[in-house]
């Protein structure tokens, strides 16, 4: 299968966006009272914007796995892809859950290991790992999706994507603005399914988004983000998002689409031998960085107690982002030097 430049570029962009999102969001959850209204609103805007990195990762998976030339037997699916995610969760999800228990109880005993294992199975480890649980489920239905997209017409794929936009984006926005909940729903739908199919549709040119609409979506989003920094909108500090009549949630869904399309429009060339090794390396490290970045962010904020009370907010973000990025990349790189880890986990 061809190795496209835009895939590597988007992986790197999404990786750093997710680090940025958690860099900004984590102190809000624990120290919201230390922010001015402007910095609190800006934190929410930046968090929701950068969370789109996860949607880019999902779209990349769809672009890669649903291609007709991608050979994907059930044996390969389970042994190479699902096993990798399950093993990563079993090891790191349990470890992170155990760390949280020890931090909370301020002691360690053998029984906590079983509790941590049970927490991991219930998705009660660190919050960012939700993506791995979801991805495993998405991979399980990939053979069906693959058979579907390779047998229906392009028009039917466009129709399905339009339906998903209406049910997964427009209906929730309408409910926010009117308070009226639409009773109709699609039992198998959800944002991950939409981005998974859209990634394939964009890559296969079933759906085309020219540059002008993409830039329009991004500029409109930035304008509304700025407006929501300046107007009094109630904030859910636990979820780090706006409550009530907010356009940010909808626009945060479309910005990843615009970025994916722009990268596809301008970077859809194969990575040649002369392409920088740095790009290839960073792309390969992205999965591990996603897993480990939360370790360093949690340590800095929870153990070292860095917060807006003792440092300028912007400077705090820069310091945490840079340190977390470097340490996450180094950790993943070192662990990948171990052959078994590189082959089966990272």
Strand order of the largest sheet: 1-2
Distance between the amino and carboxyl termini:
20 Å
Helix/strand order, N-terminal first: HHHHHHHHHHEEHHHH
Number of helices: 14
Domain module count: 1
For the largest beta-sheet, the strand count, sense and barrel status come to: 2 strands, antiparallel
Number of DSSP strand runs:
2
Alpha carbon gyration radius: 21 Å
- Anisotropy-based shape: globular
**What is the beta-strand fraction?**
under 5%
Average pLDDT value? Answer: 88
Percent in helix? over 70%
Low-pLDDT stretches: none
Briefly note the structural class of the backbone. Answer: mainly alpha
Explain this structure.
- With 346 residues, this protein is mainly α.
- It has one domain (5-68, 150-344).
- It has 14 helices and 2 strands.
- The chain has helices at residues 5-31, 37-50, 52-65, 74-105, 111-121, 130-140, 142-149, 154-178, 191-203, 211-230, 248-267, 277-303, 313-335, 339-344, and strands at residues 235-236, 241-242.
- The protein has a two-stranded antiparallel sheet.
- Helix 10 (211-230) runs antiparallel to helix 11 (248-267).
- The longest helix has 32 residues, at 74-105.
């Amino acid at each position: 299968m061809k190795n496209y430049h835009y895939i590597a570029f988007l992986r790197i962009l999404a990786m750093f966006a997710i680090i940025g999102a958690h860099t900004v969001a984590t102190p809000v959850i624990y120290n919201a009272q230390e922010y001015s209204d402007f910095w609190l609103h800006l934190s929410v805007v930046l968090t929701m914007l950068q969370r789109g990195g996860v949607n880019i990762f999902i779209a990349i998976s769809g672009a890669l796995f649903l291609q007709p030339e991608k050979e994907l037997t059930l044996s390969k699916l389970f042994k190479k892809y699902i096993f990798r995610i399950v093993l990563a969760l079993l090891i790191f999800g349990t470890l992170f859950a155990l760390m949280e228990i020890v931090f909370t109880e301020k002691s360690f005993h053998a029984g906590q290991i079983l509790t941590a294992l049970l927490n991991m199975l219930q998705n009660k480890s660190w919050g960012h790992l939700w993506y791995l649980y979801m991805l495993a489920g998405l991979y399980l239905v990939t053979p069906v999706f693959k058979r579907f997209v390779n047998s229906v017409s392009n028009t039917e794929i466009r129709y399905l994507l339009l339906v998903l936009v209406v049910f997964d984006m427009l209906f929730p926005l309408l409910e926010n603005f009117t308070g009226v909940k639409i009773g109709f729903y699609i039992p198998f739908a959800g944002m991950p399914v939409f981005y998974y199919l859209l990634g394939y549709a964009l890559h296969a040119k079933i759906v085309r988004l020219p540059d002008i609409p993409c830039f329009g979506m991004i500029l409109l989003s930035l304008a509304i983000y700025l407006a929501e920094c300046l107007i009094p909108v109630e904030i859910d500090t636990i979820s780090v998002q706006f409550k009530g009549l907010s356009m940010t949630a909808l626009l945060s869904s479309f910005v990843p689409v615009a970025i994916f399309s722009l990268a596809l429009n301008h970077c859809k060339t194969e990575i040649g031998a002369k392409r920088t090794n740095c790009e290839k390396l960073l792309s390969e490290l992205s999965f591990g960085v996603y897993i480990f970045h939360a370790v360093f962010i949690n340590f800095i904020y929870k153990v070292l107690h860095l917060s807006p009370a003792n440092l300028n907010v912007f400077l705090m973000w820069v310091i945490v982002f840079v340190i977390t990025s470097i340490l996450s990349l180094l950790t993943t790189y070192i662990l990948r030097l171990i052959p078994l880890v590189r082959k089966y986990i990272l």
